[in-house]
Amino acid sequence: MSIFKPTYKKEISIYLANNCSRFELVIVFGGDGTLNEALNGLMNKTHRPKLLYIPTGTVNDFGHYLKIPSNFKETFKLLLNEVSFIDICRVNEMYFLYVMACGKFSGISYGANINNSKKSLGIIYYYLRAFKEFLKHKSKGFIINNLKCSLFLGLNVWRIAGFNLGNKKGNKLNDGMIDVVFF
Question: pTM for the whole thing?
Fold first, then answer.
């Protein structure tokens, strides 16, 4: 058994990319961003260990979507279940499990690394960052098929940043499809 505690951004990806062949199981404690870092470290390898995600982040959209219990003891019981397979999406060289975004508001969670404000305010921290972004006059707009957009989302789930965005029955994590939303 090996315990790894990262100290800087992307360190998880680098560590797993260099060491994943040593493991049969990787247990990730953290939020959605930590899970994404682990995913990107495991991809493009011939040996991919099983991954158990224990959501301990601020919002935990992915853990919420999968109905992963917040009680660690209950979460570890998931190891007794069969392995579940889910779609892994890729844009350029980056992988994602449930959401990708570009445009206005897409950078809110990036750069929201662990700090005292995030720890003390929880999900409100993200809402304050969104409000600050909203007040900026610069628009990061782009045009897709003659449609001016401010935000583009590729979604594999119905919950983003604690908000329910769509049809819970429409999204499936193992159907080879993603929903595309333009704002």
Answer: 0.78
